[in-house]
């Protein structure tokens, strides 16, 4: 309990500003009321409830998706670590595998769900390979919508909607492939897409910059809006921060879950004959930026955009498609026309017999 | 260690998976960084602002406005209400308060005229209607197709402070009835108003009486939550102090060398923020500093959900079981909508028919009128012609007379001339004689 801080001089009670009027200056509080304690209350509630995050990784096999997930969350969260498969077979069709983990850090509990898509882009004919993925994403929205519409609904609707989709671009160094463009074009409309250049240690810095520029141009040319989307910037500060990020996407990442000794410290990295690539060194690769974006700064924003924009769009679409468009053609309006000075003719189709007109009185 | 991997190929699988929640706990090998999540959440809320709505129910003159002023340390507008209101109305005012970086949109709703009428049977109705109207507005917004829940100004009542008059005996029947009607719709916090009118021993007895009456009548007042360890202790002690006995004051009095809010009497000064004098500090602590968020949450998850459930069931919606067709709400919506459109069309038809009928009648009337006018016109014309004829006859006869007269005149003149020539002298003579 805090004590009232009252200055010694005689103070006049402050005036509350009525909502809608902008009286000059902020409200003066000479004694502590305690409204800002609500921040602490919210924090407590959030810690008690825990958080949920659903990330989907999409990309051809062999691009290091599972490794990157493990690196991001510093634990064995990927499908490969959980599933001990004897042989790694490329599936004939795209499967969607979803694995959940409960992780905790400094008292903050999070339910992380990693959704893997083995088989994407691996067939000879990759037509419509985005369809199962889109269907999955829409199914999550559908499940949430159904629960929301229920009369007896749960206190906290379990959120399985895909918050973020990390798309892995193979490091060809040239430009985006048609598959990449198609996929990102379609999915950027329903989910937040974060494109990354996988296995970026195969590109030199110049090649990397060139590749990135090329990719950004192509994204712009095709009208693909990846996260952070320009149209959802809330204010100037947001825009500034997001512009910096937009200049850096796609992030060129390297993933590793093995530690090596570098300069006396144990760091995550990849050891090759010509050197050790440190994953968390921003001079080597941009993994740290990706991690900061996804986890440390923009996680709440990602979830908000998913729930308030993508989900709402889905909801509007879904609720509209069942409504028949009422072809409401109103009846022809009544016409009262006066012909001449002393007569009127009323027309009301189709029931009106013709009326005689009063002849001129001479 | 158990873990769950599910190949999702059907929606029903997914639902089953979600309900299983078979997630495994995984230890972290280093600092990932999602411990900043609560901060991110709090920052977002700070940018967005908070809103809190308090309803003050109590008879006129119990110090509701003063208590609000004291609680939030500002002078809200408004003048004291008169005692001659014909019914209970609710007046709501919204204010923007700011403390450090927290912006709060506070709405204070006052019951004007509560307890002033001679017949108080319907006093609670306007309050219940008001609370329901706020729920309804939120429900409408939630059911809209294109909705903006994110920026919606939530007007649902989060806390209801019920002011009990400091009689020292027991609750009035009006209080019991009103609280009973409100307890399933809003979080009720009963407080004893103007408690400087009661002595300490009477107050203790009064509080016990009130609590026992509430319990025996089954009134559910808001209990401060005791499930979170950090606040469980303080909340449970506060629960035992309900109802809070408060004193409100915005005037400052110098005590020692500090200016404190107090009420000054000839026999002493009641300090508002002194815990030995009244429970104001406890109320402020519970209402604002510790449980504001919980009050909002209870309103949303308990009272609003209850209202929503009742309203939707009333409208005829029902949850179907998982096997039957999904989206029952949509179907019922559809059916209702078709019904409604059918009714509308029928009504439209009816109106059209009526309109046509009216038009016909009017037309017939007009025709009648026209006919009459025609007849009148004919009659007038005939009259006119008759008149004309008469006049012409008369003229003719007059002309004839005139002619005859002329003839006579000429004949007379002729005679006169002849007579003159014959006896012209005689006339002269006669004239001369006349002259003499």
TrEMBL record, chain A:
Keywords: Cell cycle, Cell division, Cytoplasm, Cytoskeleton, GTP-binding, Nucleotide-binding. One of its GO terms (biological process) is cell division. It comes from the Eukaryota. Residues 49-321 form the Septin-type G domain. It is found in: Cytoplasm, Cytoskeleton. One of its GO terms (molecular function) is GTP binding. Pfam families: Septin. GO terms for cellular component: cytoskeleton. InterPro entries: G_SEPTIN_dom (IPR030379), P-loop_NTPase (IPR027417), Septin (IPR016491). Belongs to the TRAFAC class TrmE-Era-EngA-EngB-Septin-like GTPase superfamily. Septin GTPase family. This is Septin. It comes from Sander lucioperca (Pike-perch).
UniProtKB/TrEMBL annotation, chain B:
Residues 417-436 are annotated as: Disordered. The keyword Coiled coil applies. Gene3D superfamilies: P-loop containing nucleotide triphosphate hydrolases. SUPFAM superfamilies: P-loop containing nucleoside triphosphate hydrolases. Residues 330-408 form a coiled coil. PROSITE patterns: G_SEPTIN (PS51719). Keywords: Coiled coil, GTP-binding, Nucleotide-binding. InterPro entries: G_SEPTIN_dom, P-loop_NTPase, Septin. GO terms for molecular function: GTP binding. Residues 48-314 form the Septin-type G domain. Pfam families: Septin. PANTHER family: SEPTIN. Belongs to the TRAFAC class TrmE-Era-EngA-EngB-Septin-like GTPase superfamily. Septin GTPase family. This is Septin. It comes from Sander lucioperca.
């Amino acid at each position: 309990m805090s004590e009232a801080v009252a200055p010694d001089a005689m103070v006049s009670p402050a005036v509350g500003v009525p909502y809608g009027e902008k009286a000059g200056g902020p409200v003066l509080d000479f004694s502590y009321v305690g409204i800002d304690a609500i921040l602490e209350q919210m924090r407590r509630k959030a810690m008690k409830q825990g958080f949920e995050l659903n990330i989907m990784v999409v990309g051809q096999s062999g691009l290091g998706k599972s490794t990157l997930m493990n690196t991001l969350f510093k634990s064995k969260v990927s499908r490969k670590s959980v599933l001990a498969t004897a042989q790694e077979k490329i599936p004939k069709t795209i499967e969607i595998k979803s694995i959940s983990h409960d992780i905790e850090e400094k008292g903050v509990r999070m339910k992380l769900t990693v959704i893997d898509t083995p088989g994407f882009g691996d067939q000879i004919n990759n037509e419509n390979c985005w369809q199962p993925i889109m269907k999955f994403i829409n199914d999550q929205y559908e499940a949430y919508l159904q629960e929301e519409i229920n009369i007896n609904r749960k206190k906290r609707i379990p959120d399985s909607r895909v918050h973020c989709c990390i798309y892995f671009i193979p490091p060809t160094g040239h430009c985006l492939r048609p598959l990449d463009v198609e996929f990102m074009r379609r999915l950027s409309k329903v989910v937040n897409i974060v494109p990354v250049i996988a296995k970026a240690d195969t590109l030199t810095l110049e090649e990397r910059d060139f590749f990135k520029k090329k990719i950004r141009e192509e994204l712009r040319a095709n009208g693909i809006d990846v996260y952070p989307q320009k149209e959802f910037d809330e204010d100037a500060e947001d825009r500034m921060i997001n512009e910096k990020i937009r200049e850096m996407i796609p992030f060129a990442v390297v993933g590793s879950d093995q530690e090596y000794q570098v300069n006396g410290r144990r760091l995550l990295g990849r050891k090759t004959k010509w050197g050790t690539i440190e994953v968390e060194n921003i001079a080597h690769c941009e993994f740290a930026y990706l991690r900061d974006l996804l986890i440390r700064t923009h996680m709440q924003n990602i979830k908000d955009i998913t729930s308030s924009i993508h989900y709402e769009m889905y909801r509007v679409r879904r609720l509209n498609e069942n409504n028949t468009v009422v072809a409401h053609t109103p009846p022809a309006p009544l016409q009262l026309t006066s012909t001449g000075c002393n007569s009127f003719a009323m027309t009301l189709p189709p029931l009106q017999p013709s009326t005689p007109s009063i002849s001129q009185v001479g | 260690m158990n873990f769950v991997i599910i190949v999702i190929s059907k929606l029903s699988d997914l639902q089953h998976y979600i309900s299983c929640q078979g997630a495994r706990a995984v230890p972290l090998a280093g600092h990932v960084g999602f411990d900043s999540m609560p901060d991110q959440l709090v920052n977002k809320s700070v940018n967005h602002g908070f809103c809190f709505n308090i309803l003050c129910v109590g008879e006129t003159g119990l110090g509701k406005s003063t208590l609000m002023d004291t609680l939030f340390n500002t002078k809200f507008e408004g003048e004291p209400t008169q005692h001659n209101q014909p019914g209970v109305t609710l007046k709501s005012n919204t204010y923007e308060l700011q403390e450090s970086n927290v912006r709060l949109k506070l709405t204070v709703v006052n019951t004007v005229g509560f307890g002033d009428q001679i017949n108080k049977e319907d006093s609670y109705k306007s309050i219940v209607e008001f609370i329901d109207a706020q729920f309804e507005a939120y429900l409408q917004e939630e059911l809209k197709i294109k909705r903006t829940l994110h920026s919606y100004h939530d007007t649902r009542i989060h806390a209801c402070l019920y002011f009990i008059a400091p009689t020292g005996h027991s609750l009035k029947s009006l209080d019991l009835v009103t609280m009973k009607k409100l307890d399933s719709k809003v979080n009720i916090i009963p407080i004893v108003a103007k408690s400087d009118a009661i002595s300490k021993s009477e107050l203790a007895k009064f509080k016990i009486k009130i609590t026992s009456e509430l319990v025996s009548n089954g009134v559910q007042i808001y209990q401060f939550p005791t499930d979170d360890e950090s606040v469980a202790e303080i909340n449970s002690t506060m629960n035992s102090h309900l109802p809070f006995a408060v004193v409100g004051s915005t005037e400052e009095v110098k005590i020692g060398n500090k200016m404190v809010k107090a009420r000054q009497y000839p026999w002493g000064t009641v300090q508002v923020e002194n815990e030995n004098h009244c429970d104001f500090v406890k109320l402020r602590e519970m209402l604002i500093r510790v449980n504001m968020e919980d009050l909002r949450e209870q309103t949303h998850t308990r009272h609003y959900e209850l209202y929503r459930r009742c309203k939707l069931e009333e409208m005829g919606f029902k949850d179907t079981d998982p096997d039957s067709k999904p989206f029952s709400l949509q179907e019922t919506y559809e059916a209702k909508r078709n019904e409604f459109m059918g009714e509308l069309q029928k009504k439209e038809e009816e109106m059209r028919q009526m309109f046509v009928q009216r038009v016909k009648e009017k037309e017939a009337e007009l025709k009648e009128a026209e006919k009459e006018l025609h007849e009148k016109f004919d009659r007038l014309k005939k009259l006119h012609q008759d008149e004309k004829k008469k006049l012409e006859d008369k003229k003719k006869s007059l002309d004839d007379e005139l002619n005859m007269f002329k003839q006579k005149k000429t004949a007379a003149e002729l005679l006169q001339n002849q007579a003159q020539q014959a006896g012209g002298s005689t006339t002269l003579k006669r004239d001369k004689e006349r002259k003499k």
